[in-house]
Design brief:
alpha+beta; Immunoglobulin-like; 4-stranded mixed beta sheet; 28% strand; globular
């Protein structure tokens, strides 16, 4: 190989390495710009506690539904209570998990259902469809529906903490 050919070959290798380096740098920078920015709507932290007759409610679903629709309205969000009755909302629409929901006024519903034990399938019999299992509401039905629940919340900028004290004797008010 002649010296001039070696120089040309070296220059080609340098250009290829530089091009690969720029490509990798471009991909990394593009990923940072596109992948690390804010996704979804701006939301505020929402957490709280659900109690029934003063006792924590485990396994309840807490749903915040906007009182008004449209762009000025809030964003639906839900959370599930732990053993201590505590919950943290997760907004619909691509917001960060556990982040909360948009600023606004909300109707709050709380539900919890239980069911009879589901019998195990009998390996000696062909499947016969879903088992007939009885399901019932654990919490008063008044808290289950947006039209009957007395629970409301206003989400403001910053951290929002709520305490929903449910009454086992609560019933829907007649209008």
């Amino acid at each position: 190989m002649k010296a001039s050919e070696a120089i040309i070959l070296t220059k080609m290798r340098i250009r290829a390495a530089t091009s690969r380096g720029l490509l990798v740098a471009g991909c990394v920078l593009g990923g940072m710009v596109l992948g690390c920015g804010h996704r979804g709507p701006a939301v505020e932290m929402v957490e709280g506690m659900v109690l029934l007759d003063g006792q924590p409610v485990e396994g309840a679903t807490v749903l915040f539904s906007p009182e008004s629709g449209g762009p000025a309205g809030g964003l639906p969000a839900a959370g599930r209570t732990g053993a201590d009755g505590a919950f943290r909302l997760n907004a619909a629409g691509g917001a960060k998990f556990g982040a909360g929901t948009k600023i606004g006024d909300y109707i709050v519903t709380v539900t919890k259902q239980d069911h009879d034990p589901v019998p195990p399938p009998d390996p000696d019999k062909p499947p016969s469809g879903p088992p007939n299992v009885r399901v019932w509401d654990v919490l008063p039905v008044v808290y289950k529906h947006a039209v009957t629940t007395p629970l409301r919340a206003t989400v403001k900028k910053g951290k929002n903490t709520y305490r929903f004290e449910l009454d086992s004797s609560a019933t829907a008010e007649k209008k």
